[in-house]
């Protein structure tokens, strides 16, 4: 049963709509990380679930990229969009010597490479 559940979960993840713009019956939509939004009254808002969103969304896919000639604003300018911000700050901390002070400071357990007998 666990194998079936895992396979079904992977299938569900692979069968989600692509992030991007969709048009259904002259209405503009955007799919973004599990949620549907629609362009209405000059702004993006959460879209109510409709049957095409679950099964036939591929037929209505327009593009991942914003078209500046479109009659709606770029979804990335909406309050729903959260850009991925790459930060290199975390990568610098992996070599922080504060956690291993003593391991490489020539203390008594490691007095050099040529006295292995005294270390064991």
Entry summary:
This protein has helices at residues 2-14, 51-55, 89-92, 116-119; strands spanning 20-24, 27-32, 35-40, 43-46, 61-63. It is of the alpha+beta class and 120 residues long.
Structure in words:
The chain is elongated. It contains four helices and five strands; from the N terminus they run αββββαβαα. The model is unreliable at 5-13 (pLDDT under 50). Strands 4-3-2-1-5 form a five-stranded antiparallel beta sheet, with no helix packed on it. It is of the alpha+beta class and 120 residues long. It has helices at residues 2-14, 51-55, 89-92, 116-119, and strands at residues 20-24, 27-32, 35-40, 43-46, 61-63.
Strand order of the largest sheet: 4-3-2-1-5
Q: Order of helices and strands, N to C?
A: HEEEEHEHH
Structural class comes to alpha+beta
Rg of Cα set: 27 Å
- Judging from the principal axes of the Cα atoms, what is the shape? elongated
Largest sheet: 5 strands, antiparallel
Indicate the low-confidence ranges by residue numbers.
5-13
Q: Helical percent range?
A: 10-25%
> Would you count the extended β strands for me?
5
Number of helices, where a helix is a run of at least 4 consecutive DSSP H or I residues: 4
Alpha-carbon distance between the two ends? 51 Å
Mean pLDDT: 79
Give the percentage of residues in beta strands.
15-25%
Which features does this protein show?
120 residues; alpha+beta; five-stranded antiparallel β-sheet; 5 strands; 20% strand
Draw up the topology in text.
Layout (H helix, E strand, L loop, with lengths): L1 H13 L5 E5 L2 E6 L2 E6 L2 E4 L4 H5 L5 E3 L25 H4 L23 H4 L1
Antiparallel strand pairs: 1-2, 1-5, 2-3, 3-4
